[in-house]
Amino acid sequence: MLAVVQVLISGVALGCVYGLVALSFVLIYKATETVSFMQGELLMLGAFAALGLHLGAGWPLAAGALAAVAGTALLGAAFERIALRHAVGRPHLVAVLLTFGLGLMLRGAVASVPAAVQETYRLPLAADVVQIGAVTLAGGQLLVIAATLLIAALLTLFFRATRTGLALRALSEDARIAALMGVPVARMHTLAWALGAGLAALAGLLLAPLTFIHLNMGLVALKAFPAAVLGGLTSLPGALVAGLFLGVVEALAGLMLPEGVKDVVPYALLMLGLLLFPAGFGAGRAGR
Amino acid sequence: MSLLLKLALAAGASVFLATVQAAPATPGVTDREIVVGTISDLSGPIALLGVPVRDGLLMRFDEANAAGGVHGRKIRLVVEDSGYDPKRAVLAARKLVQRDQAFAFIADMGTPVVMASMPVIVDAGRLHLFPFSPHESTYLPLHPLKFQNFAPYQTYMEAATRHMVQAHGYQRSCLLYQDDDYGLEVMKGVEAALGKLGRPLVDKTSYKRGATDLSSQVARLRGAGCDFVVLATVVRETVAAMSEARRIGWKVDMLVTASGYSAQTHELGGAAVEGLYGVSVLPHPYAEGANKQLADWIQRYRKRYGVDPNVWSVMGYTLADMFVHTAEAAGPQLTIDGFARTLEKFDFTRDYFGSPEYRFSPTDHLGNRYGRLAQIRNGKWELISDYLK
Questions:
Q1: What does the pLDDT read at residue B5?
Q2: Which 3 state secondary structure label does DSSP give B249?
Q3: Cα separations (Å) of B378 from B93, B155, B250, B383?
Q4: Which residues contact A221 (CB under 8 A, 6 or more apart)?
């Protein structure tokens, strides 16, 4: 029983990271109808940037982390201004391929630093162990869970209570009418890319204590994307819930199911989920 | 035919003959140099191994050249970067064969790279020496041009597992493995060892390459009551598995393959990996406690490259050293066949690095089959057994 609880919490923590990355997919998709295939690279870049500022330039960890998230968000905005903006109105594939290309460039840029290719790193973030009753928890896991709750709350507040958030929501409902109502569409697109990039970087930082910082850590996006789809691609709570679902199912399947089946089950459930909720968790059964 | 034409023809013929005679009998070997090629990974996923190997090779060849070369010939190493991409490796092999006329290929890196480029090299009649690909096809079936130093994981993991189980009396051995060829090969070795001892493999569980979290796997093995876990992991997953086990208070013995025998494992893992067993095919060159010769070598390496050497640097250096000695012994009339037949007779005794003996024969082109056990004690790998036969 103890093992189940222990593994369950690991699954929740990892599911939170899936959920956060899925959120970044959804944020961008909602506002711009583009599936971004560079989220994994942005995540890796964010983690490396924090690491570089902390270990390389000697900044305090908190300042480095903040600067890394802000910097990655700015980069997302810059990408939108320079490249992605020109893909609006063209076939969807153009923007998708653009994000692919930008992702490859990011990866290439990080890989050109020899120290990044040759070593794996650990961020000295929440490395302690917390004992609650008989359950031993890693500080990193608690941090991830707490941070995810906080971000979910902040995003809810942003989308419900601020004009900008409302504008973004209006944009995702119907871009043309939103524009007619005076929503500055271009600026909102920039904001959406910046938010998406910043969120990915943050997920990278939170993933760092669970795993390590290395060139291929962006592969986690391969898990997060199905979560985003399962969540409905346009629903923020849906993405988060689907991420959690995937993390927990994966962890429990690894513990309980026989070898060989455990890797299939999460994806089989994913398909079942899509079958039952064709428009995603966010739309509920009504989406059928 | 006029006299002039006859003369011109004669001159032409003699020039032609002279060119034919002067053409080197052996590709890549002239009076002044021997060209050796290597296809490494300097920019891809295993660049962290490729770079030190190349540096080790270069260092040894430069030392040989500074000492006057081999029978007056300088060794020139031509390095090509495949980025771990088989397509690029094939192009690199063709370039080295045709344009550089490489006499031999040494220390080509990565199984996919070697599988793609080895046919090109061997079909061109060039030596294929000591690739970093612990795969049987690099020395079996016996081929006059293929030589290998590194045994398949299966071979030495069998010996290591058998030794560990016998010495510690483990009753419930388990396996955590990467879900690919590497993991499966280790599994074969572990199963063979346990089979010989008449014990079962109690439980096994896998992870996908690039997995981030091993908590469910570790919990599962703990649930199965394992008292010994073999890890077919690389550095990151080794640290993750050990940290997870220690975090949940599970003090089980773990043994990792040579892929986890790296200074990075204890640098990254810290206290959590203390006590981890590993298999070593060559000791890590720690400066502290080094013998005189090794300490000198570490000094030279540091001075030249500005970084500390690791076990991969030692491997590169050792392989180049074997090449130099064989070329010396093959005599001034260096040919590909002569080199290969000399290598078949050569015994490489143990050196100041603590390497195993490498021995080839006309019927066996695998130089060494043995690994030795090591354990992380006080934050570094300590060798705890000799090479296990």
A1: 57
A2: coil
A3: 44, 29, 20, 13
A4: A21, A39, A40, A43
The Cα A18–Cα A246 span in angstroms is 8
Q: Please judge whether A211 and B240 are an interchain contact, meaning their C-beta atoms are less than 8 angstroms apart.
A: yes
A255 vs B contacts (CB less than 8 Å): 216, 219-220, 223
Q: Say yes or no: A162 contacts chain B, CB-CB below 8 A.
A: no
B379 shares a domain with B250: yes
Residue B268 pLDDT class (50, 70, 90 cuts): confident
For residue A169, give the nearest of A80, A79, A234 by alpha carbon.
Answer: A234
Question: Measured between alpha carbons, how far is B373 from B389 in angstroms, rounded to an integer?
Answer: 12
Same domain flag for B237 and B327: no
Does residue B217 share a domain with residue B163? yes
Say if B4 falls within a structural domain. Answer: no
Judge if B376 and B242 occupy the same domain. yes
pLDDT at site A188: 92
Query: What is the pLDDT tens value at each position of chain A, 288 positions in all?
Result: 788 888 899 999 999 999 999 999 999 998 888 999 999 999 999 999 999 999 888 899 899 999 999 999 999 999 999 999 998 888 889 999 999 999 999 998 988 887 776 667 777 766 677 887 778 888 888 999 999 999 999 999 999 999 999 999 888 888 889 889 888 989 999 999 999 999 999 999 998 888 788 888 888 888 898 889 888 888 889 899 999 999 999 888 888 888 778 778 877 887 888 888 877 776 665 544
Contacts 24+ apart (CB under 8 A), B335-338: B335/B25, B335/B26, B335/B29, B336/B26, B336/B27, B336/B103, B336/B104, B336/B125, B336/B126, B336/B127, B336/B145, B337/B144
According to DSSP, the residues that pair with B382 across neighbouring strands are: B375
**Chain B 173-212, residues with CB within 8 Å of chain A CB atoms:** 179, 204-206, 208, 210, 212
Answer yes or no: do B378 and B239 share one domain: yes
pLDDT at residue A196, rounded to an integer? 95
Mean pLDDT, rounded, for B110-139: 93
- Distance CA(A251)–CA(A267), nearest Å, equals 13
Q: Do B215 and A6 touch (CB under 8 A)?
A: yes
Q: Domain total for chain B?
A: 2
Answer yes or no: do B158 and B96 share one domain: no
Range of the domain at B301: 25-151+294-355
User: Domain holding B38: CATH number?
Assistant: 3.40.50.2300
Judge if B99 and B170 occupy the same domain: no
Bridge partners (DSSP) of residue B302 are none
The complex scores an ipTM of 0.81
Question: Rounded to the nearest 5°, which phi and psi values hold at A4?
Answer: -65, -45
Q: A187 is written with which tokens?
A: 């600026």
The amino acid that residue B386 corresponds to is D
Q: ∠ CA B89-B93-B97 to the nearest 5 degrees?
A: 170
